[in-house]
């Protein structure tokens, strides 16, 4: 048998060929993929290069050139110079000019004022005794100032003092006229709640030193002699006012105590009148003695009745009950019992002197006598209180003492230009700083 013309390949060779073909296909596919990835990377690199070039071109377009830099520098210099000039102008307007205006006004227009001062002490006898006791025991305690010191302080600063000084010296008219500069001149401005009384305290004022207990009076006027005279007049008026207050307090306290004494006397007289009236109505000066007598008589009558009863008992035992003597004893016993009952009726009520029993009369008498004793004790206490009130009021009378008499300064105390300039500068700086912080820069 002969072999066929085309023999079938062997399986092993066919498998090898397929494997080689597959490897070739995989290699070709891998090379194609690498070429595509490489091409994609080249495309991205080219796009990034183009994007960077474009951004660089745009950035270069935004950067200023030398002319722009010079122009911007010139604009910054101009703005800096403008801010400095504006700051200097604001500083001059809000700080320098007010200080210059105040100094100019005080040095050229303001009227110089001369101040006269005086030091006053107001003490009491009790306060001095207390201070002496503290000193004697070596105690350095401070005694509170007398209330009159505060009264004097308020009186000096009151409208009454202004009216008195104006009436006697015309001070208010002087301080309201051209003698005083326009700023410190006394005037009434209702819209600003300014009146002459509040402005008057700039010229006449007082202060208290609580440590030493002294009152300092100060008066400022354009004339030093006038300042001293007005200060002296103010001291005299203050002393008179304090004395009037002391006298008024003394009079009121003593009058109140005297009224209590008069009322106690009236109460005592009324109590005595009630006692006398009761004695006349009952015709008993002392019901206690009358009751004592009644009890004594009742005791004697009862003793006599006991003796009669004993005689009757003996007669009955002796068999003599119906005799004349026993009848007489029985009648006597009956009369004794009637007398005893009558005496007892006087105690509990009977028509002899009045319908009021002696026990009730005794209670009324004791009550009225007690009211008399109470009125007497009240009168004694009121008289003691009156004496104590007089002594206490006299011991608490305050003494107005001028420690330092009024004396005017040789040089004007107002205006004080350095102090006013410093105060103005300080206030202007505070106001300027506040405005700079509160308002935006573009508005200020």
Protein architecture, described:
With 444 residues, this protein is an alpha+beta fold. The chain has twelve helices and four strands. The protein has helices at residues 11-62, 66-108, 125-136, 147-156, 159-169, 171-176, 196-200, 224-282, 287-318, 324-348, 358-395, 417-438, and strands at residues 114-123, 204-209, 214-221, 399-408. Strands 2-3-1-4 form a four-stranded antiparallel beta sheet. β2 and β3 (214-221) form a beta hairpin. The termini are far apart.
Characteristic terms for this protein:
12 helices, 4 strands, 4-stranded antiparallel β-sheet, 444 residues, alpha+beta
H and E string: HHEHHHHHEEHHHHEH
Main beta sheet strand tally, sense and closure: 4 strands, antiparallel
Low-confidence stretches: 1-7, 128-141
Biggest sheet, spatial arrangement of strands: 2-3-1-4
Give the N-terminus to C-terminus distance in angstroms.
126 Å
The counted number of beta strands is: 4
Give the percentage of residues in beta strands: 5-15%
Q: SS-based structural class?
A: alpha+beta
| Helix content class | over 70%
Overall shape: elongated
- Number of separate helices: 12
User: What is the rounded Rg?
Assistant: 62 Å
Oligomeric state? single chain
Mean pLDDT: 77
Short description:
This protein is α+β, with helices and mostly antiparallel strands and 444 residues long.
List the helices and strands and how they pair.
Layout: H1 11-62, H2 66-108, E1 114-123, H3 125-136, H4 147-156, H5 159-169, H6 171-176, H7 196-200, E2 204-209, E3 214-221, H8 224-282, H9 287-318, H10 324-348, H11 358-395, E4 399-408, H12 417-438
Antiparallel strand pairs: 1-3, 1-4, 2-3
